[in-house]
Amino acid sequence: MDFALSDDQIAMQASAKRVLERCAPLEAVRKAAARDRGPVNAAAGELAALGVREMLVATDLGGLGLGLLDAAIVQEQCGAAAAPADIIAPSMAVEGLMAAGSRDQQAAWLARVVSGEVRLACAVAERAGARDDAGVRSSASGLSGASVFVLGAADATHVMVADQDGRVHIVAAEGPGVGLRALPAIDEVRVFSRIDLDNARSEALVGENSPGRGVDRMVTVGRLLLAADTLGAAQTMLDRAVAYAQERKQFGRVIGSFQAVKHMCAEMAAELEPCRSLVWHAAHALDEGADEAEVMACLAKAHLAEVGTFIARTATEVHGGMGFTDLLGLHFWFKRIGANRQLLGGPERVRHDAARLQGWV
Amino acid sequence: MDFALSDDQIAMQASAKRVLERCAPLEAVRKAAARDRGPVNAAAGELAALGVREMLVATDLGGLGLGLLDAAIVQEQCGAAAAPADIIAPSMAVEGLMAAGSRDQQAAWLARVVSGEVRLACAVAERAGARDDAGVRSSASGLSGASVFVLGAADATHVMVADQDGRVHIVAAEGPGVGLRALPAIDEVRVFSRIDLDNARSEALVGENSPGRGVDRMVTVGRLLLAADTLGAAQTMLDRAVAYAQERKQFGRVIGSFQAVKHMCAEMAAELEPCRSLVWHAAHALDEGADEAEVMACLAKAHLAEVGTFIARTATEVHGGMGFTDLLGLHFWFKRIGANRQLLGGPERVRHDAARLQGWV
Amino acid sequence: MDLRLSARHAAFRDHVLAVLDSNRDKAPTSEHRGLKHPRRLAWQRLLIENGIAARTVPEAYGGFGAPPDILEARIIAEAFASTGLPRPLANQGISMLVPTLLELGTEEQKQTLVRPTLHGEMVWCQGYSEPGSGSDLASLATRAHIDGDDYVINGQKIWTSTAREADMIFCLVRTEADAPKHKGISYLLFSMATPGIEIRPLVDMTGAANFNEVFFTDVRVPRRQIMGAPGEGWAVANATLKHERGMLGDPSATKARFMRLVALMRRETVDGMALMHNPLLRDRLLALQARVFAMQANGLRVTTRQLRNEPAGMPELVVKLQGCELNHEIARLAIDALGELGLLYGDHPQLRDAGEWQQMYMYDLGLIIGGGTAQIQKNIISERGLGLPREPRASGG
Amino acid sequence: MDLRLSARHAAFRDHVLAVLDSNRDKAPTSEHRGLKHPRRLAWQRLLIENGIAARTVPEAYGGFGAPPDILEARIIAEAFASTGLPRPLANQGISMLVPTLLELGTEEQKQTLVRPTLHGEMVWCQGYSEPGSGSDLASLATRAHIDGDDYVINGQKIWTSTAREADMIFCLVRTEADAPKHKGISYLLFSMATPGIEIRPLVDMTGAANFNEVFFTDVRVPRRQIMGAPGEGWAVANATLKHERGMLGDPSATKARFMRLVALMRRETVDGMALMHNPLLRDRLLALQARVFAMQANGLRVTTRQLRNEPAGMPELVVKLQGCELNHEIARLAIDALGELGLLYGDHPQLRDAGEWQQMYMYDLGLIIGGGTAQIQKNIISERGLGLPREPRASGG
């Protein structure tokens, strides 16, 4: 029995942290928010050098054969840095291909993913609730419709799109009948997009699993990694609040000596610490195919959304007015946590899915 | 524009407070909890002397023609004292008769209510959700079924029972086919009962309003007065917490000088103070027949349940271990607030009713 | 208890509504940008002339000259809420400085400053907070020494809204370095065009610069441009802050915001179902509605006590804490109801309500936390409202 | 990460389960009342003999004598959770005093006290808290002066559970009146039959007397019945309190409680609909399930760190605060789910789950607030876990 990261995982965690500190310090985050692609490309390159592209791909397909716990560790560091980079969409895509693709499709696409020739975005948001009649229909003439809040589309060559029946298709990002546009978003560091399809040609994944299995796996993996991202972001906000409280003086004392401030910090730590174990456990359970794995991933997403919201506000509050300004950049983490809360389903929706998985609906 | 109690209402409030301090001090509350009927009868007698029996009855029927705001003021004092007495069921009964009775029925029953000859209990809990197939059916041979958590049955001569269609009937408490038994309850100071009916003879209220109007009025009035009761009980708990914090020393200081304790007290006060205005406003709106009156009564009930729960816990917490013991008797208020929360519908149920009234369901 | 208006007040309400209705076409809109757009100034003038703005300021100083009447003020506020027309100017100069000037200013100050301020021709900003003094305002460090007939000011202010648009500033400076913290502060009034003033916009989390930093380097201000006596500025500042409290936590604004949320939840759908039919979101909505009702009723209670010249006590003490939090909670539910669409910010066809929910969610947080406000409010409630002891060692705030 | 057991530990688990299964008929039930019912003592003896209780206490002192192994301890706890059989005795004597005795007691004390305590023949109560010293334990006022070979004790203790059933007490007394608060305290062990001890049951909000007050009037205790040196009792007490922390917040007990709540909500109906189909209650249930999973995983992390002899750090510091609160929240949802039926208390056909939810809802509150525990826990987390400064002027706890 050993509930801890392996030495390899600790090394991976440290590498990711070091790399992101180097290529995504606060100034780089600011630049990315101002739509400078420089830091974005730098961070993507550095992460690729760590092996994130091949991480989840099975060894017999040219990958590293690592698991979602490894991915979660890296993603947590992205959140901690509020980095203009993440591995959410690529991880969803690989897992989606493994769940829904035929053997041939897996071999063909994953080889190109590993080489970097193909970069996959994911258009599955409607699986967690469709707004404004969004949704994609598949017909003999191709895919039509729209999907909003596509993840990972900024530099994607292809998009994995779920249709209304849950079948997953791959379309070329710049193919005919495909319109992919970035959305103006409150979290300016990452890119969210909308895809409009008009009889777009696509390749449907035709593996043996029932349709729906692929998109559900993608959503589950996405939720897990969003939870990991929030975990990292919330930890940074807590750490910064504690550091600020130890330094800022009011009424002749550091504010961290006031009981009200101390207890705010203690409440944040008490809420956040078990979340780390929860995310790890959910990731490990998915890797092992454990019974409660999907339930745990949903609950990790929902719980981190709640704890993250609490910490985003409380850590800002500890910073007083400074937390509200752009000067300290604290708002990048605040907004990231807020965005993670809503992506792939708000907490109520995700809890509902967890209830459904247990037959409680 | 004058949002304040009238001089008469202030006098009534003071009288109720004085009377209850005299006849329902903590020792009397303890005795009542031990099923001593002495303090119960004393409190009932004192309240009757204040005119609570005739308070809500129209002047042309021999009453005082006062309103629910007056009733709420008195009920708030009952809650403040955790008194073994209340005017919830009698007030529901009078309002139910006015809403659902024919003129003749109103005249006949209310005269006997005013004289004290008739004391009415209310069996309407199933209107806010029935457990264990409780419910009463009306047929040619009489009323049959059961109703749980009957209010005001301890010394009642008759019970107003709502059947499953919402029609209100009056049965004699000791008539044939009527079984009325007190329930063992966590709030031992007041009496809650179960009524079992087996072809019991009854008089149906046959006023002009549609069936359902009477029971709905009864539930609304009951909810308002439960909110008023919680208001009073929560205010007492807050007052006692503040007094304790000013007196109890730890680490060489009164605990009320610790910021954590000060802020707990401030949060209680900040939550509770607007509740007083809410209860007054809801009562006044019901008296005036204002558009939003029923909605407001529901929301007062639900909101006081939430604020009351928060204060019951927080005030106990300020008292430390002492709050947990029987020594200070604080638990009588704690349990009263807890009971009020559930009676005639928990907060979620009551908010759902408020949504329905606004066409939002 | 009687929530109806007297005949006199009902007549006043009708008057206000009639004036507003008949001048609807003169109201400025979002097209008329700039604090001093002629149309805005004309609207303010029209409101003053009809006794709907600056109502209780004496005519001699540019106001309407009516006796104070809390209920009239309330009727005016509700008339704007119900018609949706633009409210009278209510900047810091009008709401905070003018009442203080009328109370403590010299006759010359009143003669020269009040009228243009009321009419929107003279815009003020407030120089109170400093980077080192948030909750602990009295620890301010901007200094002014006397040189001939002038004060010479050096230091820095922060959280100065409208600094870039302002003509004038009312400003706290330390004039007596050796005096105890609350003594030795003076209250100066001077032009923002004075040499030596530098303004740096302070971008906040909303992406806009709602505030500024203001730097003073050897800024010379004539000694007579002081309000109150030298060294007595703390008392003057407290007089203005008393007027600030009234500006936050208006329950009719909260009610209006709540109704916009109701509209949003009836309109917006997920998977074709209106959000109002999502039981979880609806339950949260109703829980907030209870709070909205409670704060409205609490407001009626505060007004009644003011009408009766009674101390407002606890009902007033809780308004800011509870009102700001409630506003924020309403925005928070809207953000959750919008879901992913709540992440949009900026020009997009799917952006709802012009992004106001996102804006309010962040801006209100600034109001709650600015200078530790929620913490300070809890201290005030526990000390003034409940009589608990002051924090040992704490001073000021 | 590997959540499987090693072959050795899997074998141990099988052994434990086999012992329990084959002795199922010997387990005491609720019919066997009284702490010293022969059946209870026999069960405890059986568990010790098979290495399932007192496992790491040396054989010389009445234990099983195995080397310490965190995982074995965990396997044992889970075996009892899964079989539902009565756990080994875990009173304050066994869980807190025995480890302290083994660490700090004299050989004579170990020889005479450990074995009967482990076997349930000698029951202890704890004399720490006093009416005047709740969170501030070190301010205790019960005094003992030396008279010949004896200490003579006068004073009062409170929150003493099992005082009425106890044979012995471990008790903090002030033996040096003039020493600083944390000095001058001594740790005495003596019989509850000593003349001059009076016990008053302390009824609490649950209606039962789960605790007692204990009064000492000229209670004479031989001077050798001390643990540690005179005046060094504070350090001894801290050693025992360290062992107490492990007793609260067991995640497998929380999980079991949660599963009972799930069963309740699937079974119970309102208007014929199962509570599990009420979206509002179900959402609250799922939110709690996330916390249950989180605390379980956190527990695995704590155990792993213990196995590796690493400092447990923050994961351990948060267990008591979060665990107690979570238990209480589970009971609170159950109470809301029960609705009016949750008001029943005592013998009635409609009472659910023998009233355990009502009981737990109140009792857990006592655990959370007893002696300001939640506040103290937050102080500990902020100071030891986050390195924030101690409260100025505060001392002790």
Q: What does this protein look like?
A:
The complex is a heterotetramer, with 2 copies of chain A (361 residues) and 2 copies of chain C (397 residues). With 361 residues, chain A is of the alpha+beta class. Chain A has 3 domains: 7-115, Butyryl-Coa Dehydrogenase, subunit A, domain 1, CATH 1.10.540.10; 120-204, Beta Barrel (Butyryl-CoA Dehydrogenase, subunit A, domain 2); 213-357, Butyryl-CoA Dehydrogenase, subunit A, domain 3 (Up-down Bundle). Helix content of chain A is 54%, strand content 14%. Chain A has helices spanning 7-23, 26-33, 37-50, 68-81, 88-100, 103-115, 213-245, 259-288, 293-318, 321-324, 330-342, 347-357, and strands at residues 120-123, 135-139, 142-151, 158-162, 168-172, 178-182, 192-200, 203-204, 249-250, 253-254. In chain A, strands 1-4-5-8 form a 4-stranded mixed beta sheet. In chain A, α4 crosses α7 (213-245) and α7 (213-245) packs antiparallel against α11 (330-342). Chain A is globular, with a radius of gyration of 20 Å. By secondary structure, chain C is α+β, with helices and mostly antiparallel strands. Chain C has 3 domains: 7-89; 124-232, Butyryl-CoA Dehydrogenase, subunit A, domain 2 (Beta Barrel); 249-385, Butyryl-CoA Dehydrogenase, subunit A, domain 3, CATH 1.20.140. Chain C is 45% helix and 14% strand. In chain C, strands 1-4-5-8 form a 4-stranded mixed beta sheet. In chain C, strands 2-3-7-6 form a 4-stranded antiparallel beta sheet, with no helix packed on it. A two-stranded antiparallel sheet of chain C has the order 9-10. In chain C, β9 (269-270) and β10 form a beta hairpin. The longest helix of chain C has 29 residues, at 279-307. Chains in contact: A-B, A-C, A-D, B-C, B-D, C-D. Chains B and C meet through β10, α8, α9 and α12 of B and α8, α9 and α12 of C.
